[in-house]
Write a structure and sequence with these properties.
The protein is an alpha+beta fold and about 110 residues long. It has three helices and four strands, in the order βββαβαα. It has a single domain (about 1-85), classed as Gcn5-related N-acetyltransferase (GNAT) (Aminopeptidase, 3-Layer(aba) Sandwich), CATH 3.40.630.30.
């Protein structure tokens, strides 16, 4: 985990999962109403540096959605123009589908 602090207050952090070859951006957040001081960029560069020191060959910023999330796309693509398509597979078991349908029918009484 890496964190960006300003005046001893954490205003942004990231959590990275990695092994000897591959690292992946898992979680990231920033404090509500925190000014944009470039903390996102600084954290990513710090993580990239740390992963290189650990010998990782790849650092994956995860999904980017150019049309739905253009600002995040611009931020992430600013590090590297190498985009790799990854299939997104969603599998929901029969019990999940049945319970979800029942919940929608009967729902919670508010």
């Amino acid at each position: 985990m890496a964190a960006f602090k300003k005046q001893n207050e954490t205003i942004a952090n990231v959590v990275i999962v990695y092994d000897k070859d591959y690292s992946i951006y898992w979680l990231g957040n920033h404090a509500d109403n925190a000014p944009n001081s470039g903390q996102g960029e600084l954290l990513q560069w710090e993580v990239i540096k740390r992963m290189k020191e650990k010998g990782c060959s790849y650092y994956d910023l995860c999904y980017i959605e150019k049309k739905r999330l253009p600002h995040i796309y611009k931020f992430k693509s600013g590090f590297c123009k190498n985009e790799v398509s990854v299939p997104h597979i969603v599998y929901k078991s029969l019990p999940f589908n049945v319970s979800n349908k029942l919940y929608k029918i009967f729902g919670k009484n508010d």
